[in-house]
Amino acid sequence: MKKRSALLTALSLAAAGCATAYETPSWRGSPDHRQSLLNEAESFMARYAELIRAGDRAGIAALYDPDGAVLIRGGRRTLISYGDIVRRYARPEWQPPTRFEWRDLHYEAAGPDSVVVLGKFAWQNNEGPAEIGTYNALLRRSGERLLIRIEDEAADQSAN
Question: Where are the beta strands (DSSP E) in the chain?
Fold first, then answer.
């Protein structure tokens, strides 16, 4: 019993230390820099939605990191090259939706030049109801702009 109590106390102290470290990371820099980065990420995601709705295949592909991206679809993780991303959107199988919107996006600065985006999206084709999906991404600065380095999309199981 004493061992269990000591273990719980140690875990509580460790968790408290982690929480404090998370709340005040040294990379946040100035509040102005952090807010500017988050604003940039919001603008990026708004532009992404515009490109999807317009069916701008080349524009969408240009939002990805030139070093390639880690794409997670249906729980399967794949590192694909930028060339493969361009080819993926150029295929006739990829068709733009008739309606698209982001929902409940949350932005978290993950470093001086990266942002984690969490949320959902609604994608509707010509027929049927909108499909709701979950969306998670890491946007990372490359040169002067943010680009998608990691992207995770899946059907939203809570919507069923």
Answer: 69-73, 76-80, 99-111, 114-124, 131-142, 145-155
